[in-house]
Amino acid sequence: MTSFGGLVVFQKLFEVLELSRHLKGCCRKLDREGPRFYSHGTILQCLIVHVLLGYRKLRDMDLYRDDPLVGRVLGLKRLPSIPTLSRMLGEFDAESIEAQRELNRDLVLSRLINEKMVRVTLDFDGSVQSTTRHAEGSAVGFNKKKKGARSYYPLFCTIAQTGQVFDHLHRSGNVHDSNGACEFVVRCVEAVRAALPSARIETRMDSAFFSDEMVSTLEALGAEYTISVPFERFAELKQKIEARNYWWPTWGSKGRSTHFEECWKPKSWEQSGRFLFVRQKKKLQTKGPLQLDLFEPVQEDFDYKVVITSKTGRPGNIVRFHEGRGSQEKIFGEIKSQSQMDYIPARRRAANEVYLMCSVMAHNLGRELQMRINAPQRATTPGRMAKWVFQEIATIRNTIIRRAGRLTNLQGKLTLTLGTNRDAEVSILRFMATESA
Question: How far apart are CA 163 and CA 339, in angstroms?
Fold first, then answer.
């Protein structure tokens, strides 16, 4: 008996991607040190399946240790014990982690190549991983939800068109967003350009990345960019806003947004850029008692933002493009709540980074599974929404993976029998029809 009959859809995906072979290749050097019952690549696959099943702590593996289908998906007769899993996680080094990051990049790039993407949008931002323990490499830094807690603060690069995490830069929790950002951006952009030399590469960043060095780096790379400007730090920009008498209506905003633009540069910069000044009408919250029998007064004010960009075109389209980077926060929220990215399992930094990478790969594989059976459902939008309408991994887990079933051996042929459910049957058969292309 198995509690995870629908896991066969990922078993098929693993076979098509040759995931087991690639994961073992990431850890080839570690496995040369001596004979072992389990390879480090197998440990990585165990963690990916662990996350796909919806479990969080390493100790939770005991809850499905005897499930026969999980063992078959992993190619194991017996799952590793928790002490073995913890010990082998601590043995990973920088070289094997880098190989795993490269494998993740290759899996994402292969999808972009198959879809022949002519435009790739890279979003860059950091996300906090809090811990209550003293984990190696963690530090007390800015933590909006858990003030004073030790944390990591990895920097992520996500692909807007596929909703996947392309790469990450692991950092301690007490660094600024821009720490190591230029080198990381160069690496990501060059990797995409090497795979898709004719594609247009776009980048979006918040105000923490605004600097002369970052702008110069993106200009040298030939990548289009929009970066929020912390205009409150520049008195000249505030003066320009206050002195402006006429603001142009922003196309497509239905009169709620107006703008103007200027070519400007801070005094310490070597080059000027295109700065968009945007103001958006907002309703002020009314406090105190209201005379509802007469009328409800509505007061309006403006929110201001400034964006520097190398893109050409209508300011309204550029603003909507820049605001589309909010979809990255949804990706972070989904990976944290459904793929356990916010969990720090060990005291060793290497073990925690490996677990983070497995969480990211589990999310990416869930997206890859859906993209293999569906054609893109959206055209390119100004905000660069994902081209597919994705189901969250929790939905796939609850409707497909967690299906009770029975494994039987009929005349030498292993057969999986699931309970009758027409919707689940149609979904599983569609996923099982995944081709190698």
Answer: 14
Q: How far is it, in rounded angstroms, from Cα 209 to Cα 205? A: 6
Q: Kindly give, in sequence order, each residue whose CB lies less than 8 Å from that of residue 312, ignoring residues fewer than 6 positions away.
A: none
Q: 281 has which bridge partners?
A: 302
Q: How many Cβ atoms are within 10 Å of 13's Cβ, its own excluded? A: 18
Coil, strand or helix: which one is 431?
helix
How many alpha carbons fall within 13 Å on the CB side of residue 361? Answer: 29
The DSSP result for 182-250, as a single string, is HHHHHHHHHHHHHH-TTSEEEEEE-GGG-SHHHHHHHHHHT-EEEEE--GGG-HHHHHHHHH----EEP
pTM of the shown model:
0.91
Task: Decide if 284 contacts 301 (C-beta within 8 A).
Answer: yes
Quickly count: other Cβ atoms within 10 Å of residue 197's Cβ: 7
pLDDT digits (tens, 9 = 90+) for 91-121: 999 999 999 999 999 999 999 999 999 999 9
- The rounded distance, in Å, linking the Cα atoms of 262 and 46 is 54
Give tens-digit pLDDT for 203-214: 999 999 999 999
Which two tokens mark 107? Answer: 């899996």
- State how far the alpha carbon of 247 is from the alpha carbons of 138, 244, 250, 259, 276, in Å: 47, 7, 9, 5, 11
CB burial readout 75-90, b (16+ within 10 A) else e:
eeeebbeeeebbebbe
